[in-house]
Amino acid sequence: MKAVLLIAINFVREQRWPILVLLLWVLLLAFLGLTTEAARQRDDLLFVFKQVAVYFVAFSVFFGCSAIQNERRNRRILSVLSKAVSRQQYLSGLVLGITIACAIYCFALGMTGSWTLGEAGFPALQVWFLMLCLIAACTLAGTVALMFSTLLNPFFAAGATAAVMILPALLSRTQGLYYLAYAMPVSTLATTVLSSSFGSPGEVTWLPIVLAVAETLVFWFLSARIFSYVDIAVSVE
Amino acid sequence: MVGMGHVLEFQNITKEYRSLFGRRFLALDGFTLQVEGGEIFGFLGPNGAGKTTAIHLAMGFMLPTRGGGRLLGEPFGHAATRRRVGFLPENVALYPRRAETLVRFYGAINGMKAAQLDRRARQVMGMVGLQDDAKRNVSRFSRGMLQRVGLAQALVNDPELLILDEPTSALDPVARVGVRELLLQARAAGKTIFLSSHLLSEVELVCDRVAVLDHGRLVRIGKTADLLQAGERSEIVARGVPPGTFAGAIVKDGAVRFSVLGNQQRPTLERIWELGGEVISVVPQRRSLEEIFLEVTGGAESSSWEGAQ
Fold it and tell me: Which of A153, B78, B109, B163 has fewest C-beta within 10 Å?
């Protein structure tokens, strides 16, 4: 467990610059909260909040797709896996790292959102529920991306992840098969965040979050199985 | 040295790489090798011979196409066994951290306790001569210094088996001597060292046994001393004998010089005395590992071919 935690912290540390750049968006929301009159421009504030929140789903896919590939390309993975670290532990570290990165971002966004939107009358508790939805969506999206990155290069892994996330939602809308939206709840969770408004902040429904957590575990398990059969070292000779 | 059992064992391993378009490359072809406990084992071969592939298979970074092997008695890829192994990759790639922090990180993911790690990290930084640079970020280090941090992370867990892929390739002569002494100390402490290197003179100095790999096949293996002595020749300098009597003889400063195989030395000397000649000197000509390497890998022909271009 210690090795998993150390790999996760190391991952976050390696990704600190993209995370800091993303936190600038949160800073933008805070700036808007300071400079605008919350009561009058509350819809604009909520719009920025929702956009900034959903961006991170895309970035978690980016983190997931590139994590293993970067380590393999720069060969740092060799020094880590030459220790008493199994492939499963290594992948668990990366999944935990993605989750920690999401949690840092969501905490910052949640703090800023509950302050800026709270002043405008949005329930603070609902802000934190939306952040929980976001963490679940980001972790699942990052894990799916990580699974594809064990087989494909980052570009194709991102495409495959997007397809897996979007197709069920599309089918659910076009074919009217509503249960399909829950097959890959990233879109459902993102929709929960995007559809919230001052008039209707949304209900606290736990099913998509529970499904996202369960599917994260399934995709983590699949990633670990696939990764245990992958040659991680490309011969330099 | 002998009698401690096989520490590292490759059993008829074949490794084949396949490209997306079906092209195949055979990196190892029925490769079998045993490394005994407590020895320094030199693993030689030209570029592309399959040395790094063999090492990566042993470390569990890859799966063999056929065959298998054991590392410290466990099948390749057994994570917990790697706690007893120190590994230095060919091209050291490290996270941009302070050197000592980095060594502590690698020790910690290897399951070392914090209190033990503090002392050991400082100790290994001293062993590789980086005690004064321990607080510096490795991103500012030269390649030789990175190599030494790589060596420190391999040593931090006080491993039973050290697998070193080109450990001295980026080091200056002083640092090379330091690494050589480190290896000899490790052997004296009962550790096993599996050393892949192109620096044949160093291998010759420290290794108990060597194996030469070429095109994925083992082409020579033996004790270093035996290999160097096999086919030993002596140079004989004599006076008062006709130069045409001995094959390859040349005349220099009035003396005849030629070389003979070790088992031909005595009859040759008797022949000189029979002819009324005088033996000035008999100097044993020990073969170098480089000569053996070039001979078994066919490198002598290719280097002379390149020279003719």
Answer: A153
Question: How far out from the chain centre does Cα B277 lie?
Answer: 45
**Which one has a higher pLDDT value, B231 or B172?**
B172
pLDDT at A18 exceeding the cut of 70: yes
Across the range B38-59, mean pLDDT stands at 92
Q: Is A82 close to B95, i.e. CB distance below 8 A? A: no
Amino acid at the residue A65: C
Instruction: Tell whether the model's pLDDT for residue B9 goes beyond 90.
Output: yes
Q: Quick one: pLDDT band at residue B90, thresholds 50, 70, 90?
A: confident
* Phi, psi angles (nearest 5°) of residue A33: -65, -35
Q: What is the pLDDT of residues A167-201, one digit of tens each?
A: 888 888 888 777 777 888 888 888 888 888 777 76
Chain mean pLDDT for chain A? 88
Which of B47, B48, B110 is closest, CB to CB, to A83?
B110
What pTM was estimated for this model as a whole?
A: 0.84
Q: Locate the chain B residue with the closest alpha carbon to A73.
A: B93
HEC readout, B88-111 = ECCCCCCCCCEHHHHHHHHHHHCC
pLDDT of residue B102: 93
For residues A54-68, average pLDDT:
91
Q: What CA–CA distance (Å, rounded) separates B273 from B266?
A: 11
Question: CB-CB: which of A74, A78, A86 is closest to B79?
Answer: A86
Question: Whose CA is closest to B216, among B11, B21, B15, B19?
Answer: B15
The Cα–Cα gap between B103 and B121 comes to 6
